[in-house]
Amino acid sequence: MYTSLTNRREFIKKMAKLSAMAAAASMFPGIIFAEEQEAGIPADAKLDWKKGPCRFCGVGCGILVGTENGKAVAVKGDPKCEVNKGLLCVKGYHQTMCVQARDRLTHALVKKNGRYVKTPIDEALDLVASKMKETIEKHGKDSVAMYTSGQSTIPEGYVASKLMKGAIGTNNLECNARLCMASAVAGFLTTFGTDEPMGCYEDIDHADYFVTWGNNMAEMHPVLFSRMLEQKSTRGAKIIDFATRTSRSSGASDRSILFEPQTDLAVANAICYEIINNNWMNKSFVEKHCNFSKGLTNMGYGTEDKYKFSDKPEKVDFEAYKEFLKDYTPEKVAKYSKVSVKDIKYLAAIYGDPNKKVVSYWCMGVNQHTRGTWMNNLIYNMHLLTGKISQPGNGPFSLTGQPSACGTAREVGTFTHKLPKGVVMNEKHRRLAAKIWKVPYENIPSKPTYHTTEMFRAVDRGDIKFIWTQVTNPLVSLPKTSRYRPGMQKDSCFVVVSDVFPTPTSDVADVILPASWHIEKGGIYGNSERRTQYWDQMVEAPGEATPDAWMTIEIAKRMGFGELFPYTRENHVDEIYNEYRQFHEGVKHGMAPLDVLKKESGVIWPYVDGKSTQWRFNATYDPACDNGEDFHFYGKPDGRAIIWLRPFEPAAESPDDEYPFWLNTGRVVEHWHTGSMTRRIPVLHQAMPAAYVEFHPDDAKKLGVRNGEKIKVSSRRGSCILPASINERGLPTRGQVFVPFFDENMLINDVTLDAFCPISKEPDFKKCAVKVEKA
Q1: Where in the cell is it found (predicted)?
Q2: Which residue in 535, 643, 655, 739 is a FRET match for 708, CA 20 to 30 A apart?
């Protein structure tokens, strides 16, 4: 899309066509108009095209940004990128249009006497560093915290970890990936002993079936869904939608199966029962490559009453697993899951057929779950029992929601328990970090402190007295924000916010630091398929907007840690990455050198002997396999994956007489997370200007609710008023309402529950009890 004023008339004409395309994409997400990828760009335009990844979701589409006179004026899909092959979704095509928003943060703002005062960036950084030092001196190192993002670049996450854990010596570092991908991490680690998917997007080209578990891919990952639709039309591949709500993915699928919230646990076990009962299990694979284990089942739900964190496995045998599954016959599970016996058997037959390849995809529906780790384990169970794993077109694939939730949060380690390699609890991992960081080994604490929800509880309690948020908007995205907003406003905590635009989070800040946007700085992301993606700075940032990594480095220097941060502003991205690569040397997680990343549109790790490893744990493709077998799950000491005994348990909060509806929350195709970027893009804002509450028509009729009427949605925690939506975009089941969370004027997360999976510590945004009434 072209925005040069010299071609304004042609641009307006072309923009009308592009808007029509956007509307069509909005009506049926996933259909991308490849032949229109340069719509709106005049043929005689002489642009300088620069490669990079998209700013939005974890798919990691490659983009080409056209610049003219120092401005980003056009975007198109990168045809050389293996992720998207030149395609982009509606957000991707319009992504640079928000950069010049009138309310862009271009200078630091310091709150003085209740008002924000424009302040030179150096003066603001001096203040932040002095406040951080003062807080540590008065209250100890665990009184300060940083909260970062799966949208942070790898260099940004790396220097944050180095500052907090290596220099200051506190594990008070968390990221918003805890709200979306922590259950995926815990699931990989408990089943395989190592994190991130074993397959890649090329699986789409080989699979016969795609089973999406609670995942509206048509809106959340539309480019990947387009690739699936292509395989459906050309090879006859089938898409099975398994969800609690009818969405646009449902309409494009070959079969849509709806289940009662939380009962996905039971249905997955029923599928495993059927696989074994019908002798569909790959006996040889299981005997060679799997163990059976059970863990604690009396864990709480992460509320503030007592709950257990330990989940140490107890090894059991196959007969014990068969006995466990007797409670999950299709006939038993159908009674409370609302999934028919026929549909359970149908799903089991897909996984059980040795002649059909199947890929399972999931994202927030599985992960944002009070038993999110368990649900991840259960999906792996189906693939392990049938041996359909780590092969082209066969495998479980956890999709990420943010552009570098893998690369920054999971690989670099911006969780409280993580290091750039391994965990703080492991002495070997701490010693490696201390060596590379050049800090005393004793600097790095051996115990995690606060995960995200507990971190903001600690702010509310007054235990954390200084918090710095970067590249995230927690006062819209946190569950139960009705509690945490007042906590952030207390005088007992000094709040620093780095961002590109004003948000409800910056509204409570003592200091607001202006951040550079995506293309205004160099950076590196890591996407869902372990693909590392590098880009150079493309345009200058306005005013004194500064890269987040460099602001962290400047704070470190002002606090007296300059020797540990010897990077130059001009080249800090490359310098940091070269240092970070030292953590992952070797065949299990080797990362591509900079010269390769700069040349390619992205490189999958492990990168070994000049080649990406596309399928891990399979000796045909993975040079790290060294057990002499076809498969080697080398994350575990014995090289075997674990098939877990994970029971069904009810949700933390279910509907009752007072609060008779389930509340489900999520996203829409037009907007990215809390909308701080996409709501500043006119075409996207016009297409979806406000949030809404979806009803099933029968519930709407019973309540006398009409489209557009103002409805108050209330829980035990808070309330939100939204317009009703009936028979429009999506269709909840009876007794359920759905609300997207992008709209800061309609804060549905005031209503949600902050219970979480006690293993992963990821909150459940998908299930709580509410009542609805006309406002």
Answers
A1: Secreted
A2: 655
